């Protein structure tokens, strides 16, 4: 086999890899998007949970004076109001825990990343990378910048 043929074969295999990555299933794109916007999505679902919780509570405590828009929604939902209440409690609880956990991780990440000691940074690097993966791509970039600042090679 000639050198030119080998190079063409290598290029073709490389192109096939690139094409297979570009034509990756849409669920990977969805996962990347959800990973990137996990904080915003968490806040949005917490707000939806609180809204559903309020709607359910207006149904349970029907003696409370309801605003006209809320009254229309509660009457339209009918017997589904109990499910709205349960879903509201669930979403509010789950996403409150999610946001609390994210806040805790963010606080710990900032403590580690703001250190002036190269030794402490290197010692805690596995935990810093774990936190960066949990927090999102922008935090992974901050770790890479800090590694470059301290001239840490991997």
Report on this structure:
The protein is mainly α and about 150 residues long. The chain has one domain (about 35-150). Helix content is about 80%, strand content about 0%. The model is unreliable at about 10-25 (pLDDT under 50).
Oligomer: single chain
Instruction: Report the total helices.
Output: 8
Domain count: 1
Characterize the overall form: elongated
**Distance from first to last alpha carbon:** 38 Å
Question: Biggest β-sheet: count, sense, barrel?
Answer: none
- DSSP helix fraction: over 70%
Beta strand count = 0
Reading the helices and strands in chain order gives HHHHHHHH
**Strand percent estimate:** under 5%
* Unreliable spans: 11-23
Helix vs. strand class: mainly alpha
- Overall average pLDDT: 84
Radius of gyration from the alpha-carbon trace, in angstroms: 25 Å
